[in-house]
Design goal:
DNA-binding; 6 strands; ph1033 like fold; THYN1-like_EVE; single chain; PUA-like_sf; alpha+beta; 5 helices; 25% helix; Ubiquinol-cytochrome c reductase; EVE_domain
Amino acid sequence: MSREPDALARQYWLVKSEPDAFSWDEQVANDVEPWTGVRNHQAKKNLAAMKKGDLAFFYHSNEGREIVGVVEIAREAYPDPSAEAGPWVCVDVKTVGPMPRAVTLAEMKADEALSDLALIRQSRLSVVPVSHEHWTHICALGGWKGVVSR
DNA sequence: GCCAACGTTGGC
DNA sequence: GCCAACGTTGGC
């Protein structure tokens, strides 16, 4: 992290869910949802680095394979109640709104500006960081207007 | 501590 | 349904 003016600004993320297990519709219905069940150390590290107010893309893996909405981190990492053992954590995410137009994985893979997106480079990781540039780019693709709203 | 076997995730 | 990527487990 640099000491540039935006070093303290909000961070951006992408979280994946299989719609069979937990879909965007359920997220919208619940409004605030504990993001539990992460059992991967890299993903856990990312969860632990999340700050209240950070934004995350909500991505449907397996079926859909597209970004369908935006959520905000409503509560920072705490012990995952669904974990029987181990140091696992979860965060609470709050619905911000749906992508006006879902951004598909195929579209992102075809986009040179997104060639080093962690979603693409590490396809099995369920919680990945998104750079501010990538965030803005993907928001443009999806017609998202609320980039800087809070 | 190495590495083969195996399990899981997730794209195609 | 298949397979690549990658994490975990267990024998040595």
